[in-house]
Amino acid sequence: MSATVAIVLAAGKGTRMRSELPKVLHQIAGWSLAEWSVNAALEAGADRCVVVVGHGRERVEGVLRERFGDRVTFALQEEQLGTGHAVRCAVEQRLQRFDGRVLVTYGDCPLIQGPTLAQLLASDAPCALLTTHRDDPTGYGRMVRKDGQIAAIVEHKDATPEQRAICEVNPGLYAFDGGFLQRALEQLDMNNAQGELYLTDLVAMAERVDDFVVPIDEVRGINDRRELAECGELMRRRIAERWASAGAAIEDLGAVYIGADCEVQPDARIDAGVHLRGKTRIESGAHVDVGCVLRDVHVSAGAYLHPYTVAAESQIGAKAQVGPFTHLRPKTNLGEGSKVGNFCETKKTNLGKGSKVNHLAYVGDGEIGEGVNIGAGVIFCNYDGVKKHTTTLEDGVFIGSDSQLVAPITVGQGAYVASGSTITRDVPADALALSRTKQENKEGYASRLRRRMEAAKKKA
Ligand code: UD1
Ligand code: CA
What we know:
- The chain has 460 residues and is an alpha/beta fold.
- 21% of the residues lie in helices and 30% in strands.
- Helix 1 packs across helix 2 and helix 1 crosses helix 4.
């Protein structure tokens, strides 16, 4: 098979987005529109992709280079003189004398899938294209058929009233024979209602056009934020359905948000309102309950995240438990069977196998061994205003509730820290550390005190 190339048009500004961000960098399920578009073209079998850029070109190029490396190159279209002009820019700058097949797609059409585009690449007609039907075709190019074959595409602004009644429209996705494309581009002119070079004029020049009718949902383009949200909904659902088909237990397919780079293994359970972002991975048998928001988190088999756990860049070991309402900040690493209960915050901490932080604690910069128990309200004082310091708790340590551990500090194996202590020096193994004032009980004092206070109140 000869080489194939994709041209992705992404030079437009996207004025109707009303945004600082170039249109094609707006995101759906964690990927920008441009990334979805390029990905589909590569999946369809294009060997490389020439992206036509203009508005916000540095940012667009940066995002695409980061994901696709040297499989993408760029062509600059300084002035947007129409889709035909955009393709001409790509050909002149990157595809001189290329005679393989050329796929042409848009950077703002994220729902298109590789296999659908592959049909276009498999055709050997000088021009192959997708078509779709819209109830309201206003604004789109209309498919004009003669004897069943597509004879031309007429832009809305150039169309006669009869042509405007046609509901079969042009989604803007094509494959061309490279030789035909180069010859035909040279013949384009601007004699049309918009004074642009229309790529669509190529259709009437081709001696044969293959067409493939596709459902509208796969070729929705995005012009404004409303369409972005609608496509986002369709994409989210598609992703959730894909994981569900592969065996994931997803409670509500319409109410989970799974990013493009996430993985949900068979028998992992994901409840409503869960957001999985970045490269989050949920292993088999793990359960992520309602409302959890996870970014770049690895949840191991059998772990349970109670509702409303928020976590980032963290590892959750097998059968560990977290939450409800707990925040795991980057570099939290929870060992097998460990537990971080409700209203806790962790950061850059290794929590050993079976260790527990059950309630209302701050655990930052911790090296915590196995079988450690950290009581309610414990705080790791890790920051002295300039530097962060480590708290090390060896295996089997018990930290009583409401203690503060002022780092850097080490509590030796099996040691006890009594409740309410402020620990500022290392504690040797097996010791009991306590740093609080001795308790004094004054018998009968409470009722005396109460009488005194009531008398004072009457006076006033
Ligand atoms: C184009 C088609 C129309 C089709 C519609 C589908 C032409 C002449 N018309 O309409 O038949 O129904 O798409 O959406 O092709 N772009 C550039 N440079 C340009 C012009 C456009 O890169 O000079 C890019 C835009 O960024 C966008 C895409 O091409 O991603 C489509 O451009 P847009 O202006 O939305 O499409 P129309 O030309 O109105
Ligand atoms: Ca236009």
